[in-house]
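Issue: ligand-bound run for fe (ii) ion - logging full I/O for the record.

Environment: standard queue, default settings, no custom constraints.

Inputs:
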Amino acid sequence: MANIARDTFVVGLRNAHAMEVQARELMERQSERLDEYPEVKAKVVTHLQETNEQLKRLEQCLEACGESSSSLKDTAQSLMANMTAMAHSVAGDEILKNTFANNAFENFEIAAYKSLIALCSAAGMPEAKAPLEASLKEEQRMAAWIDSNVEKVTMEFLSHQRQAA
Ligand SMILES: [Fe+2]
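Outputs:
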């Protein structure tokens, strides 16, 4: 008997896993180059740790669904993330572009977790709800932080530019 809700949930978990691998690569690249923005760097490093936990949660959810998490095909997305980060690193206003990209990325993640949480009961996986909600809260915190710091980061960038001129 096909279980469409369960299949949709499993595909969603796999996609979310690929998304978090991409997020991790982006933040790893960024954190190496954020010495001039210590506050942003601290936030990115903290969220990088959260992202590693989120990946473990997704792997546990997949295993609870009877899916192996070793066969995840995240490579293509990871390569894309690296290319995005490299493209940004060439530009002088890398910090601004990365801030906008991170803002978009966190909101993408929020929607993905909300969708997974909505599927839990129908997929027969009510126990997956709590860990997914924990990840959702972390994404919402990060998105809120970025949203409330866009102007501040912009003015910091401006002052760095003035010092370098
Ligand atoms: Fe995130």
